[in-house]
Every structure is written in structure tokens, then in C-alpha cells.
Design goal:
alpha/beta, 5-stranded parallel β-sheet, 2 domains, 7 helices, 314 residues, FAD/NAD(P)-binding domain, 25% helix, 7-stranded mixed β-sheet
């Protein structure tokens, strides 16, 4: 039995700030977009408690409620929001063929990729349990809540150094937990943290457990040379060991960097495939903020609208 293939003008893959903003713009332009939420509807913001740095929410907002607002706004203009995971794509010929949940087939004239990136975690039980209760993967998002307090950050790359420096402007003390006896960060970033009196670097150190019942109260560490354990009293534990862009299904079609972030043509959201656009954290490893993701979502919708206008006129 041949399953009927649904035909759409604009298909949006992913449902964070980028995907929903693209949906708002595309639906207001009369393009009747269909958005598939992916495995984590609302994206990373659904595991974020308080969002205080997004314009328009003067009293702050919890991440899941904010994504609910975005979804309702997109639906108000006619976006069809569907729960499902895109499991396969074929960009070898137009219209592009997309498979959802390994069975639903869709032919799309344009595709907006907004699949985001997921933070890498240490994988310990207490980290998952206290996520959003003092454990965070975004110092810029959550550092403010721990003003004047002692915090720890784990990571040895440029991002970890940047976030440690950022936290040192807000917090009274920053412990930087580093597994080896060296960093992989650039020399300039290493110097910056080494010369910062508020940052203490703990070399050859790993996290045994994050302490606290309902909020972070401390961390138990062990030195992987001496095997000695010790505890630190802290209010927050930041994880900065990198992000993984959710782009695997596009490999072989879309140009990416070595980490898997989608390459877009500068000043646009266009990819190397005509009619396929990328926005949000799937193509942004620098800023990774809700507001910048929303901005590129707007760009992707405008780019796809222009593309459709041009191809329909030919």
C-alpha cells in the first residue's frame, strides 16, 4: 500500500525560539507552515527555570511557559504544530522528501532547520536531579541568580573560560574544575582565567557528586592523581563541556563544520542546498541565546518567503 505523501510549502523542523519565530513569520506571510516539534518540544528552554534576559518579559518567565507563548502565537496565525520526530531527509531532488517518525512522508518546497543543539552533560545522577535547581549549562542565562555567591564550573575549553570570566563579574568566587593538568582553551583565554583573582583553577579534578536535596549546596570532588576526595560549598554548578548540534540526519546533504554545526551563507540563513535554511543553535555555536535564535528564525522565514516568490515567478 502506497502511503499518500503530504505536500507543503514550508516545513519547519524543530520547536525552540528559532522554529516558533520562523513559524510566526511564515504563517503571517500566508505560507501555511507545518512545524514538527522534535523529541524535545520547546527545545532547551523547557529545561530552563527562569528566563530574565528575553525582552518583553519584565518580571521574567519560566522557560516552558515562554515556549508555550511562542507556540500559541504561531498557531494563532495558522501554523500546524505537530508532535513528531523527523527521522530521515532526502534533499537530492526537489521537492524535498522528509520522513517523520519513520513512516509519515512529506514533500516540502522549502525547509527550515531549527533542530538546535543539546548541552553535553557529565552524566551523573545528581546533575540530572538538580538540573534547573542550581545546575546549569548556560552561565549567561543563569549566572545572575547566584550574584555574590560561590559557584563552580566544569570545562577546559574557550567556552568554559569565557563563562568563568563572565561569572567572576557576578559571583564572589568561581572554582574551575579541570580533569587534566592542562587546558585546551586558547592561550589568551587561559591567561585571562589564570590572572583573575576571583577564579581558582582545580587541576586533575573530577566531579564525584553535586550535593543538595532541592538546590545545589556543594560539590564533592576527587583528585584523579591522589584519589583524595574533598567537598566545596557552592550555590551553583555550571557545566561547560560543549554542545552537540542536533544535525546528524542532515549529514551527507548539508555542509557542516567539524563539530556538526550547519554552515550558512554569511548574512543569511541559506545552506548549500537551495530552499533549505538553517536557524538557531543548529547553526550558531557562538551566541546560543533565545533572542539570537529567534532573530535567525525570523531571517529563515523571510529567506524562504523570498525563495518561494522567486521560484514561483520563474
Amino acid at each position: 500500500m502506497n502511503q499518500e505523501i503530504e505536500k507543503v510549502k514550508v516545513l519547519i523542523i524543530g520547536s525552540g525560539p528559532a522554529g516558533y519565530t520562523a513559524a510566526i513569520y511564515a504563517s503571517r506571510a500566508g505560507l501555511n507552515p507545518i512545524l514538527y516539534t522534535g523529541g524535545q518540544p520547546g527545545g532547551q528552554l523547557t529545561i530552563t527555570n527562569d528566563v530574565e534576559n528575553y525582552p518583553g518579559y519584565p518580571d521574567g518567565v519560566v522557560g516552558p511557559a515562554m515556549m508555550e507563548d511562542f507556540r500559541k502565537q504561531a498557531e494563532r496565525f495558522g501554523t500546524q504544530v505537530r508532535y513528531g520526530l523527523v527521522t530521515n531527509v532526502d534533499f537530492s531532488s526537489k521537492p524535498y522528501l522528509v520522513t517523520v517518525d519513520e513512516e509519515i512522508k512529506i514533500e516540502a518546497q522549502t525547509i527550515i532547520i531549527s533542530t538546535g543543539a543539546s548541552a553535553k552533560w557529565l552524566g551523573i545522577e545528581s546533575e540530572a536531579r538538580l538540573n534547573g535547581k542550581g545546575v546549569s549549562a548556560c552561565a549567561v542565562c543563569d549566572g545572575f541568580f547566584f550574584k555574590g555567591q560561590e559557584v563552580a564550573i566544569v570545562g577546559a575549553g574557550d567556552t568554559a573560560c569565557e563563562e568563568a570570566s563572565y561569572l567572576s563579574n557576578i559571583c564572589s568566587k568561581v572554582y574551575m574544575i579541570i580533569r587534566k593538568d592542562e587546558m585546551r582553551a586558547s592561550q589568551i583565554m587561559q591567561k585571562r582565567v589564570a590572572n583573575n583573582p576571583k577564579i581558582e583553577i582545580l587541576w586533575n579534578t573530577e566531579t564525584d557528586e553535586i550535593l543538595g536535596e532541592d538546590e545545589v549546596t556543594g560539590v564533592r570532588l576527587f583528585n584523579n592523581k591522589t584519589r583524595e576526595k574533598h567537598e566545596l560549598a557552592i550555590s551553583s554548578f555550571f557545566v561547560a563541556i560543549g554542545h552537540q548540534p542536533n544535525t546528524d540526519i542532515f549529514k551527507g546533504f548539508i555542509h557542516m563544520d567539524e563539530a556538526g554545526y550547519i554552515k550558512t551563507i554569511p548574512g543569511s540563513t541559506r545552506t548549500n542546498i537551495e530552499g533549505v535554511f538553517a536557524c538557531g543553535d543548529a547553526q550558531d555555536h557562538i551566541y546560543r541565546q533565545a533572542v539570537t535564535a529567534a532573530g535567525t528564525g525570523c531571517m529563515a522565514a523571510l529567506d524562504s518567503e523570498r525563495y518561494l516568490a522567486e521560484t514561483e515567478n520563474h
